[in-house]
Amino acid sequence: MALHFNSNGNLYRTVSLTYEKFLTHFVTNPRRRHLVANALPFFRIFHSCSGQTVYIDGSFASTKEFPEDIDLCFDITPIDEIKLSAEFPQFFNINDIGNIRRDLQCHIFHFHSGDRSLLDLLSNDREGNSKGLIKLDLKDIIHYHDQK
Predict the structure, then answer these.
(1) CB 34: neighbour CB atoms within 10 A?
(2) What is the pTM (predicted TM-score) of this model?
């Protein structure tokens, strides 16, 4: 699958990728591998709490060779919040989320089907131009790593 980027290096539209295709297209150097390794525990947590989908955004979803961070936007519509609060209490504490952002370079966002405004906001760059995100299936990510 050929991916198409605009002159700013952003995807033209949101694309659903297998995890393997994501790795092939976007995890192309040690910096990008490091950021995905930092994100993997969050993929596991949200998957174990019935999460199904994550969107990757920001410079990681662009042609930028060395992104500063990785933006993760989880669809929490199907999430078991009781289990999530037990497995990832930091998710509910803004200071802890800030520490994850600073220490792991992972920005964790979320939306649910009743309010997609944040996802819509992430679909535009700073100048208001439309851009695409990368949509991944959490089950696919976990299955890939469990096979390794």
Answers:
(1) 14
(2) 0.95
